[in-house]
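USER: Please consider what follows.
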Amino acid sequence: MLDLAGGMRYSGDGPTGGANADDTGGFGHARVIWEDTDVLLDDKLRLAAGVFRETNLGGLETQANYNALSLGSISSTYVRTRDDDGEWLNNYGGNFSFGLIGNTEGIDLSGSRIDRSGVMIALTGNSGDALFDVVVGGQRFGTIQSGEVRAIALGPYETYKINLVPVGGGFVTLLGEPQEVTLYPGNVVSLEFKAASFVPAFGRIVREDGGSIGIARILGTLDSAVTDDLGFFQTELSEPGTLVIQPLQGPDCEVTVESLGDNQVFAKLGTLVCVPVPESQ
C-alpha cells in the first residue's frame, strides 16, 4: 500500500495576511506500507518506510509492528531528521505489550487482548502436531495443538460458545461437542478438549458360523458406523480395540481390531468374527 499526502502551509503576518517567509513552506509525506496477516497463522506483521517534510524540517522514518494474537505485540520506530541548518538527529522508540491471565490451575499469556475475564483452553489426545483453530462465538482466536494450553481474555457478563476446528486437511477430529461458558469479572474458566488422529477403516463382520451380520450398529468408532446387508462397513478408528456390534435381531456381540496396520491412509481390517459379549460387560 502507498500512502501519500501533502500541501502548503502559510502563516499570516500583518493586516493584509501576507506570508511570513520564516513559517511558509510545503509539507507532506510519502510512505510505503507492507502487511502480512499470515506470518504464523494467527499473527500480523506490518512494515512501513517513508520520507516526510514539515516546515523547516525533513527526514525519513521506518516503523515495524508485529502483533501475535496469542502472545502480544511489539513495535519499533526509527526517525532520522534534518533541519534547515543541516544537522541530523536520530530518534529511536519501541513498545511491547501483552496480557496475562490465570487461575488456580495455571497462568498464561493472553496475547494482545486485555480484559477482565477469560478462559484457559487445554487440548489433550493423540492428534500429534495437527493444528486446531480456537473459535469463540464465531471469531477465530489463534491456534492450538495437542498438549498445549491457550489463554484467551474475554469480556465479562457474556456467554461464549467455544469450539476447536481442524486446520487444513489431515485425519484428525475433535472428540466431543463445543462448550459454552458464562464469564463474570475476575472469572477465568478452565476448559478441556480432546482430539484424536484417525484412520479410515474397511472390513466385514460375520457371526461365528460365517453368516454375515447385516444392518448392525457399530459402537466404539469415531463416527456412526453401520454394516450393510452383507456385513461390510467403513468407519474411522483412532486406535486398535474392541468394537461392540448391535444387530437388529439377536444379542450384541463384539469384534477385536488387533491392528490398524502401517498404512496410515487406509486400514483394511478384513473379515472380523463377532463373538458373544462376556457377561461381565
The two ends are 67 Å apart (CA to CA). Residues 6-24 have pLDDT under 50 and may be disordered. The domain at 100-197 is CATH 2.60.40.2610 (Immunoglobulin-like). The CA atoms of residues 253 and 278 lie 9 Å apart.
